[in-house]
Specification:
356 residues, alpha/beta, 2 domains, 8-stranded mixed β-sheet, two-stranded antiparallel ribbon, 12 strands, 19% strand
Length: 356
């Protein structure tokens, strides 16, 4: 049998290869553990036609063909020159690889600052420096310092040159701790700890929902520093007056027996009610007796609030000893009070105390 007949175009390929060798970059790259130029010239594969395939190259089905090269076919001269060029390329020593450490994204917010309250639990806060009084926002039950009211008031205080403090209780927002381990008294102590550590001089407390209860407790603990108090849908004593009566008897029995219960929240997710929360709330009730606060108090409430009745604002006004108490009702507002017109109403209540 005659040897396979090859039809090649060697001169044209060698001419193309020579032209690309002049323009090829000098920096080699590693491909399969071999350093070769980063530029791969075209037409490295031989343009050859095999007239016929020798019979010994056919492999019967199920058998493994020997990978030894066929002796009847010689490599193309262009391939030989390319291989010589690849192996004779100068060796370049690369610098050692450094560990990957990407630059922080400009859209990535840095972690919130925090302080260890003394038992290993770090409480997150956001403090903006400025002149006194310091505006302090106290969030509600299962809420945090990133809400619309908190961020709006912080920006409003900064606009007027005043300091502001936002915070998260343990188990809330960016703070550490388990939510089910918290109680109203424990969260009030968290707020008082951060206020004492981070602020000086007079303060203005703005409490939303449960934050209104905590604002009253903080005000009673630091009456000499309190300049004004604003309650937004304030809910003092809500564990005893609203939460416990609203639970069916089987749920109450589960709380007393197991220590907690998980129920669907009206705002999405799951709400955890613990026996400790109920019992601790009974030790911190404030609407059963006169409240010895004599500072200006402003109460903002929505009359469509289905979580905390707007009549709660009337009870607060009756119990505080201050003569400077105002109640502002928004007829179509619900519990959150976060619409643009609601925020404008809240801003108008805070403004007089920041522009004195």
């Amino acid at each position: 049998m005659d040897a396979p007949r090859l039809v090649t175009k060697i001169p044209r390929q060698l001419e193309a290869l020579a032209s690309h060798r002049k323009s090829a970059p000098k920096n080699p790259v590693r491909v399969r553990n071999k350093r070769i130029p980063s530029h791969r010239p075209p037409m490295l594969r031989p343009q050859a036609r095999i007239a016929h395939r020798p019979q010994h190259l056919h492999t019967p089905p199920g058998e493994r063909r020997d990978r030894a090269p066929c002796r009847g076919i010689q490599p193309h001269p262009a391939i030989v020159l390319a291989q010589i060029e690849h192996h004779s390329a100068p060796s370049v020593t690369r610098p050692p690889r450094l560990p990957y450490n990407p630059a922080p994204s400009p859209n990535r917010k840095p972690p919130m600052p925090s302080i260890d309250r003394g038992d290993g639990i770090h409480l997150a806060y956001e403090l903006t420096l400025g002149r006194s009084p310091t505006l302090v926002f106290l969030p509600g039950f299962m809420s945090d310092m990133t809400g619309d009211k908190a961020t709006m008031l912080a920006a409003f205080a900064t606009e007027h040159g005043h300091a502001s403090l936002r915070l998260d209780y343990a188990g809330h927002g960016a703070s550490q701790g388990q939510f089910e381990h918290g109680t109203v008294g424990r969260w009030a102590a968290d707020a008082l700890f951060l206020i004492d550590r981070l602020t000086q001089g007079p303060i203005i407390l703005v409490g939303s929902s449960m934050g209104g209860w905590i604002a009253l407790l903080v005000g009673l603990a630091r009456p000499e520093r309190l300049q004004a108090l604003i309650g937004v849908a304030a809910a003092p004593d809500f564990t005893e007056d609203l939460m416990w009566p609203g639970l069916p008897e089987p749920a109450r029995q589960t709380i007393m027996r197991d220590g907690l219960i998980r129920i669907p929240s009206a705002y999405g997710g799951t709400q955890i009610i613990t026996r400790a929360l109920i019992e601790d709330g009974r030790r911190h009730l404030v609407l059963r007796a006169p409240i010895p606060l004599k500072i200006p108090i402003r109460l903002l409430h929505g009359q469509q609030d289905s979580a905390v009745p707007w009549q709660t604002a009337l009870r607060i006004a009756e119990q505080v000893q201050s003569a400077d108490v105002e109640i502002h009702l928004i007829k179509d507002a619900a519990h959150r009070i976060s619409r643009p017109n609601d925020l404008a109403a809240l801003r108008s209540l805070v403004a007089p105390f920041l522009t004195l």
